[in-house]
Amino acid sequence: MTPYVETLLQYVRPESQGAFIYDYRRFAKDPQVGLILTILLGIVGGESYYMGEWKRGILMTLALLSGVGVLVSGPMWIVRCFTISNECESYNDYLAYCLAYRYLPLGTTPEPPAPAQAPGNQTRPNISGVPVPVR
Fold first, then answer.
1. SS (HEC) of the chain
2. What pTM was estimated for this model as a whole?
3. Tell me: the pLDDT tens digits for 64-79?
């Protein structure tokens, strides 16, 4: 569990913390599994199915089978090898936020803090050093 999940756990009712932890562990995505799926099955969109983005997975599979996949799925696969861990962590933070909101005491506590998001005008370097805008 990440520090963000530990922070959110403080907002959850004490009698609901067990259910919160159970649901979090049940639905959370493991970054190591995502990376292994990306390396082994990423060219056909295997990690997209794992992350619940089945439309993207189908499109990547069809692109590879149509012959365009070398130009489309290949570069996407290489980029996903470097970004899948952050995507899993973002998914898990959002999941924890939704679960904490679900198990909040009624009207007695403020809303839990939202997952950290970068400002829209900030840039970050990607793997090649070319700046990429943060969404």
1. CCHHHHHHHCCCCHHHHHHHHHHHHHHCCCHHHHHHHHHHHHHHCHHHHHCCCHHHHHHHHHHHHCCCHHHHHHHHHHHHHHHHHHHHHHHHHHHHHHHHHHCCCCCCCCCCCCCCCCCCCCEEECCCCCEEECC
2. 0.72
3. 888 777 777 778 888 8
